[in-house]
Amino acid sequence: MQQSKKQINNSTKRKRRTAKSAKHKKKRIAAPQPKQVRPDGTIRLNKAIAQSGAASRREADALIAAGRVTVNGSLAEMGRFVLPTDDIAIDEKPIRKKIKRVYMALNKPVGIECTTDRRVKDNIIDFIGYPERIFPIGRLDKDSEGLILLTNDGDIVNPILRADNAHQKEYIVTVNKPITEQFIEKISAGVAILDTVTLPCKVTKIGTHRFNIVLVQGLNRQIRRMTEALGYSVTSLKRVRIMNIHLGKLKIGTHRILSKSELSELKRIIGV
User: Fold this and answer.
1) For an engineered disulfide with 82, which of 38, 86, 142, 207 has Cβ 3.0 to 4.6 Å away?
2) Which one is catalytic: 141, 143, 155, 164?
């Protein structure tokens, strides 16, 4: 039986609508997810609860919303970030044992990035390979080597990094040409960089191309910028001391746990 003209027209319209719908159908793109881990080593509270096995992330969100979760004894809010050392409880029952605090000194090689983002090549976390979550206190340029501290104790980070605390950091620097007395005088007095003038600092010549410098500031690439402003270029930069913690004979690429006396003195200096 032949189709009527009306049936043929209706069939043609349906095919056109189907083709048009397929042509304009867009691939569904997942909404971006908020970062679960931050550079300071903290993670979202719901993830911490999920990692403990106490509840799924969705269940954790419901528990937080219901006011049944506390962090360090205080009622938790949605979206909060926590440290591995924080005490988390559901209905006043701790979800995990308190993690042992770690205080570490690393002799960082050139080429290692001081980031906890493990998507970054040559990041400091993968380089150390420590079994517990730790994070660096401050930074040391990728092109520089020497002492950097790492910990999982968030309580000491801000007191160490706070600029107005003026904590000493000592470096040995090698430059591209002979050092003059005029260079030592100018870099010691303060150099105009980054729309400011650096604070006076102690600088000692220790070789024709090398000097020792003690800073109480932490401006971005400060030593490199200071030397460049005075017509020099840094060929190597090594940090050898942070407050009372000395690099000593620690081999490059290796780390050690701070001694009790070092840690006690460090905490006394920063007032924690």
Assistant:
1) 86
2) 141
